Write a sequence for this structure.
């Protein structure tokens, strides 16, 4: 019987009532008396020297409050990068200044060149057109390999080159891996592109800065996944505002997908300008601005080699990747192609030797940073594509080849520095074969062929490192912040509970699933428990939501805080029941004395805590509120196996996805419905990357997919009905809930199976096509068929 | 968007008058013009809305059987009201954009704009339609003058479009994945005096007739009649979504599918 509440119940998402009835309160819904509006003048060229900016006419325009340029921000800090990567020679990465407003040089289309604060947005926009820029254009650096060559134009004149870092991992294995590849019976090589993406959350970014002169208090309302991270970065590194004078509020947020993790120039601007003009300053991104100012995702160019012995056992993997950083380092940009990518290169397989080389490149493009999966999709894609190619070259079944090389014993220490605590890759593969009806594929292929279509089956496995992250470990790896989380469980006098959490919910359903955990622990109804998040003045200093960490890290903090609450409540109950606390049991909201019929209700105990008339005041404090901080001992390792079946129209090259199946191991599952929804959304984004989405620049650095006219988002009719299963559960061994995280799996696990399926379809039609770069558009499929 | 005045005339005569003003601009359903204004890429002083003009609304059938569509008729209305008279045209209208576009966008607006990837130009050219304006009648063959360019004069308004109804017709559209405009769209219509094939989405010159296919299909109206034909890639559009040779290839595929659908 499925449960109807608590852990394991598919409780309906309570937040959806407001989201689906238009009652959500988003940052753009915030309007403050006396508010002004900022319009940013953005660069329309990719690379130029700014000779002068004349704002005289603009400043005199009607309704203009103040015009700002880069000169106004010389005295404040640059936008910081949160992760210091050390290169293979032991040197720190090159870290250029990232100004709030361009000063002296423009480095990408969309960079802020000036800002007009006006009484109305229209007035600000009119005035921005009156700003006179004197620019000297420079050649744009767009192609990463060209950027790496001697004599290339430099994005940053003050740096030695366009190479941010040349990273080797594990550097000590470099020679051994080279030797293993030389000695291998067979080596499969694949060169591929992991296409650049724009996250496109439904809600564009918004920032409202506020300043109170009477108490020198700054408030920033912003579309963020992690308000405390923004407070830390902006307060400490950019504007020099101490924490107690800076409040960051992220109310309802309409989707993040990583792109709302980062601290952006517009946030710093609105906070700074609110004090400068002594009025609230509001910015609402247009969709056009979002395309050229939200951090982009992916954008790797990779060569991977997989070495095998004569029996097809994997013996070594060597990869070389160029990773685009864009023009500046966004908040976590440097960590994505390194620690979130290289550490996953073992995948689900016991390959003894691995070497990962990553050259991070500066180019005249929008900064690139984490996007759903962040580094792990790039690792999974290359590994699962090269395995498929190897199976074809060796004439073996791609599932059998994977099985043969699976890690089967846990814990498993990979050659790339992480230790998988649990997993059962055979179980998820067996489950996949069942739900995807792999046995029935041949019959379905025959049906497709009878219609003149080519049908292909693609399979892949994936593993990810989630529950980010053990602070001491990431500190050694260069992280400039801790990655614990925090929760406060506040029990009210009549027994209802408010839980203040550091995690932020922007689609994940925390307001529903977190109370399920507390309900299970105490035995009171879920509707007696509310979650508070998104406001640094209300919640403890937690680190927010990304990397599928909310439940594994913040949920664990919440459990620890609830345990403290329960322990204290048991002491109060013991006093009321005149028993020893060791004999008190809590079940279904009742404290009872073991072996007796004496009991007291949860609500009576909580009331006693706040009306302590009959209370052991000499031993314990009144009140019932506890905070816990939780720092994970390890990452969590969700894993699974995915299958995709496509039909290819050989006349047009169009690919349609006919079936998609996902077998995931997320450890314990709190709310199966929400988990399924997370997987559905992730797969939609993975299929979007595989078939549709392509952020493209021309050689001058102009963004040519700058709107939905050219940037193809997946729509409902591009997607099949999915079959998803998360019944294979090997609980995480090191967090109290045994959970692993599910937010990114779909986006990580789906692109390789889509491309593998297309290649399988084309091969079945006699076309010797071994690879097509994503997005696998009809035009690319047709070109590949023609060239085969 | 810059500030502008808006006029809402209720007769064609008033609209034509209003359009004589300096920097006046006709506004149909606004599916191209409004986004253009929002991007500040145009700055008309006056917008003259044509959607309130009763005599430019609706679908009817002329005595000679031709389907007459008022210039301000929305795609959704054409989809509904032309279905009995000219199913292929109604079907084309029912697949333009999405429901919001179809309930605002008008046939006159689409033909006046002549987007190289729009659907209606293929129907008008493929049907040998007559474009009727406030002061003349223009044959479709004389009307389309290249990408975003038509025979319309400044201030001239499309009041009606008249489609001779073919024996059979079909429109096949291959979608550009992002915009869902036609990457290539082919309208095939078989009339007593021959077959017309009009292609949208493919050419740098906008909608065009594929005369070799017309000749082959007029002689033998079956997809196999196209077997020996190929369209040169020269002059085809090449962009992020397809090369000139891909588009040329798709024209042939879509033409064959349209013919097959006519016979199906």
């Amino acid at each position: 019987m499925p449960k109807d509440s608590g852990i394991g119940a598919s409780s309906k998402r309570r937040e959806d009532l407001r989201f689906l009835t238009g009652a959500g309160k988003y940052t753009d819904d915030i309007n403050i008396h006396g508010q002004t509006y900022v319009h940013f003048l953005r660069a329309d060229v990719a690379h130029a020297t700014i000779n002068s900016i004349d704002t005289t006419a603009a400043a005199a325009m009607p309704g203009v409050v103040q015009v700002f340029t880069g000169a106004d921000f010389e005295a404040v800090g640059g936008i910081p990068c949160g992760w210091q990567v050390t290169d293979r020679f032991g040197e720190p990465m090159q870290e250029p200044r990232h100004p709030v407003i361009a000063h002296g040089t423009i480095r990408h289309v969309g960079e802020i060149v000036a800002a007009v604060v006006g009484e109305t947005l229209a007035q600000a926009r009119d005035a921005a057109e009156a700003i006179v820029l004197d620019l000297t254009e420079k050649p744009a650096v767009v192609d990463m390999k060209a950027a790496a060559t001697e004599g290339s134009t430099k994005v940053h004149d003050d740096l030695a080159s366009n190479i941010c870092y040349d990273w080797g991992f594990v550097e000590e294995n470099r020679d051994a891996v080279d030797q293993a590849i030389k000695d291998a019976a067979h080596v499969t090589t694949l060169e591929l592109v992991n296409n650049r993406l724009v996250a496109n959350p439904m809600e564009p970014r918004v920032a409202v800065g506020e300043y109170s002169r009477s108490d020198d208090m700054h408030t920033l309302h912003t579309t963020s996944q992690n308000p405390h991270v923004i407070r830390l970065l902006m307060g400490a590194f950019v504007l020099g505002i101490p924490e107690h004078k800076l409040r960051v509020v992220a109310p309802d947020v309409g989707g993040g997908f990583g792109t709302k993790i980062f601290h952006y120039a517009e946030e710093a601007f609105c906070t700074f300008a609110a004090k400068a003009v002594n009025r609230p300053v509001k910015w609402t991104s247009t969709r056009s601005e979002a395309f050229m100012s939200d951090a982009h995702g992916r954008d790797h160019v990779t060569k991977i080699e997989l070495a095998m012995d004569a029996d097809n056992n994997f013996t070594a993997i060597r990869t070389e990747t160029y990773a685009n950083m864009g023009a500046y380092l966004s908040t976590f940009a440097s960590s994505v192609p390194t620690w979130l990518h290289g550490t996953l290169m073992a995948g689900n397989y016991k390959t003894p030797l691995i070497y990962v080389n990553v050259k991070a490149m500066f180019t005249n493009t929008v900064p690139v940073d984490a996007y759903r999966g962040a580094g792990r999709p790039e690792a999974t894609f290359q590994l699962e594509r090269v395995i498929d190619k190897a199976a074809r070259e060796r004439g073996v079944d791609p599932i059998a080849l994977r099985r043969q090389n699976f890690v089967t014993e846990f814990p498993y220490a990979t050659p790339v520095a992480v230790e998988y605590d649990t997993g059962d890759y055979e179980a998820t593969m067996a489950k996949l074969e069942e739900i995807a009806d792999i046995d029935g594929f041949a019959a379905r292929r025959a049906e497709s062929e009878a219609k003149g279509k080519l049908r292909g089956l693609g399979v892949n496995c994936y593993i990810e490192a989630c529950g980010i992250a053990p602070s001491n470990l990431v500190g050694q790896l260069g992280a400039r912040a801790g990655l614990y989380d925090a929760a406060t469980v506040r029990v009210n006098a009549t027994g209802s509970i408010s839980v203040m959490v550091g995690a932020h919910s922007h689609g994940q359903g925390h307001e529903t699933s977190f109370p399920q955990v507390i309900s299970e622990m105490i035995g009171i109804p879920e509707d007696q428990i509310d979650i508070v998040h998104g406001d640094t003045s209300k919640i403890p200093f937690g680190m927010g939501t990304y990397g599928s960490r909310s439940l594994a890290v913040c949920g664990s903090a919440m459990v620890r805080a609830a345990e403290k609450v329960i322990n204290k409540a048991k002491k109060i109950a013991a006093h009321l029941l005149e028993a020893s606390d060791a004999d008190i049991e809590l079940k279904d909201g009742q404290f009872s004395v073991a072996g007796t019929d004496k009991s007291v209700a949860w609500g009576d105990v909580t009331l006693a805590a706040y009306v302590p008339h009959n209370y052991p005041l000499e031993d314990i404090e009144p009140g019932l509120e506890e905070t816990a901080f939780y720092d994970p001992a390890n990452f969590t390792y969700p894993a699974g196996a995915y299958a995709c079946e496509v039909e290819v129209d050989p006349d047009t090259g169009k690919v349609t996805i006919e079936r998609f199946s996902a077998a995931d191991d997320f450890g314990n599952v709190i709310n199966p419905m929400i988990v399924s929804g997370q997987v559905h959304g992730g797969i939609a984004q993975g299929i979007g990357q595989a078939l549709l989405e392509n952020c493209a620049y021309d050689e001058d650095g102009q963004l040519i997919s700058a709107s939905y006219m050219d940037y193809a988002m997946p729509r409902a009719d591009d997607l099949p009905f999915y079959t998803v299963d998360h019944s294979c559960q090997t609980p995480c061994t090191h967090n109290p809930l045994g959970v692993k995280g599910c937010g990114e799996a779909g986006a990580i696990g789906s692109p390789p199976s889509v491309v593998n399926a297309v290649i399988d379809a084309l091969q079945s039609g006699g076309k010797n096509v071994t690879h097509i770069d994503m997005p696998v558009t009809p035009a690319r499929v047709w070109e590949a068929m023609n060239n085969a | 968007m810059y500030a502008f005045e808006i006029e809402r005339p209720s007769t064609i005569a008033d609209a034509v008058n209003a359009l004589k003003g300096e920097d006046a601009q006709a506004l149909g359903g606004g599916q191209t013009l409004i986004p253009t204004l929002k991007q500040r890429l145009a700055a008309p002083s006056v917008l003259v809305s044509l959607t309130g003009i009763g005599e430019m609304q609706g679908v009817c059938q002329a005595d000679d059987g031709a389907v007459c569509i008022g210039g301000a008729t929305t795609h959704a209305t054409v989809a509904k009201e032309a279905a009995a008279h000219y199913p292929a045209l109604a079907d084309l209208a029912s697949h333009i954009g999405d429901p919001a576009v179809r309930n605002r966008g008008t046939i006159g607006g689409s033909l006046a704009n002549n987007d190289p990837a729009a659907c209606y130009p293929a129907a008008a050219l493929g049907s040998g339609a007559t474009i009727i304006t406030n002061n003349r009648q223009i044959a479709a063959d004389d009307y389309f003058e290249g990408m975003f360019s038509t025979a319309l004069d400044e201030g001239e308004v499309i009041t009606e479009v008249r489609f001779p109804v073919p024996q059979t017709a079909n429109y096949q559209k291959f979608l550009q994945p992002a915009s869902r405009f036609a990457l290539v769209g082919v309208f095939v219509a078989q009339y007593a005096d021959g077959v017309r094939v009009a292609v949208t989405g493919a050419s740098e010159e906008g909608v065009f007739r594929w005369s070799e296919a017309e000749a082959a299909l007029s002689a033998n109206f079956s997809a196999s009649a196209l077997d020996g034909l190929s369209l040169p890639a020269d002059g085809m559009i090449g962009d992020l979504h397809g090369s000139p040779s891909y588009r040329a290839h798709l024209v042939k595929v879509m033409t064959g599918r349209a013919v097959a659908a006519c016979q199906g």
Observations:
- The domain at 16-22+484-630 of chain A is CATH 3.30.365.10 (Aldehyde Oxidoreductase; domain 4).
